[in-house]
Design goal:
- The protein has 240 residues and is an alpha+beta fold.
- It folds into 2 domains: 113 residues, Dihydrodipicolinate Reductase, domain 2, CATH 3.30.360.40; 95 residues, Nuclear Transport Factor 2, Chain: A, CATH 3.10.450.
- The protein contains 5 helices and 12 strands.
- The strands form 2 sheets. A 10-stranded antiparallel sheet has the order 2-3-4-5-1-6-12-11-8-7, with helices on one face. It has a two-stranded antiparallel ribbon with strand order 9-10.
- It is globular.
- The relative contact order is 0.16.
- The N terminus is likely disordered.
Length: 240
């Protein structure tokens, strides 16, 4: 009987965990941290970026960009040449407000073969967790079909009234909530940014100060009288 009850409780826990916010980890952790500070969620960004495993010519890079844009159901592919190479981009906004974009950078002025950089970004206003999760699964499936292992940088951003707020204290509270250890810190004007390591988050990046897998930033926006909070794992890859 006790074994049956224990089994039922485990199933209930898994169900509540899976349906709590509609997001999977680590999006869910970052969102809960932000919301616990009373911030209104304004943006959630999933970003995958890495170079291809094999060198490609410019023509092959163009073909890969076209195939990725087609597979993601994006709009027309644009091509921009600069002194350092060619940048291919395509994006599309869905009715749900989610925007998906792909960028391929063939950073060679000549047609010699290189390993181009492929970037895929999914952006949501944070209002439809289920839709974003579905899009993430779709993006991951497409990347797998191209032999690309998805590795997402996750960013969440929100704001709260600035009255009575202290950017440094906000960052400290968020670090405590994550049970994180500070690795590096930066203070610039009205912006505070701290890189840290927290065991609940995956993997990490090695920096001069050590391994980090969480970045927290707070900035006072005096024009709108708001405190902007940005959280990212392993690092923040959006403007903050």
């Amino acid at each position: 009987m006790k074994r049956t009850i224990r089994f039922f409780l485990v199933l209930l826990f898994l169900f509540v965990t899976a349906t709590g916010s509609g997001f999977s980890e680590p999006e869910d952790r970052l969102l809960r941290m932000l919301q616990a500070e009373g911030a209104h969620v304004e943006k959630v960004v999933l970003h995958h970026g890495q170079r291809t495993s094999s060198p490609l010519s410019l023509a092959e890079s163009r073909r890969l960009a076209e195939e990725l844009a087609r597979a993601f159901g994006l709009g027309r592919l644009s091509e921009k040449r600069n002194p350092d190479g060619v940048v291919f981009t395509a994006e599309r906004a869905e009715a749900s407000g989610i925007r998906t974009g792909v960028t391929l950078i063939h950073d060679a002025a000549s047609d010699r073969k290189i390993r181009p950089y492929v970037s895929v970004r999914v952006t949501s206003g944070g209002g439809s967790p289920a839709a974003l999760e579905r899009r993430k699964r779709r993006v991951s499936k497409v990347l797998h079909s191209f032999g690309i292992m998805p590795q997402y940088h996750v960013n969440v951003q929100g704001s709260k009234p600035a009255a009575g707020s202290d950017a440094r204290l906000e960052v400290r509270r968020l670090l405590e909530k994550a049970d994180a250890r500070e690795v590096e810190a930066m203070l610039s004007g009205q912006t505070v940014s701290v890189s840290a390591y927290a065991s609940p988050f995956p993997e990490g990046l090695r920096t001069a100060g050590g391994i980090m897998n969480l970045q927290i930033a707070a900035r006072l926006n005096h024009h709108e009288n708001r405190l902007v909070l940005t959280l990212g794992t392993p690092i923040i890859t959006i403007e903050y």
